[in-house]
Amino acid sequence: MGKQNWYIIIGSLILTLIVYVLLKALSANVNTYLIIAAFVGAVFAVLLASKFIQLYLFPKSNSKDEVEIKHYAFLHPYELQPANGNIELCFELPESDEVKFYMESERGGLKLDIMSGNLEKGVYPCTFDTKQLSNGVYFYILETSNQRVMKKLAVLNN
Question: Quick one: pLDDT at residue 158?
Answer without folding.
Answer: 77
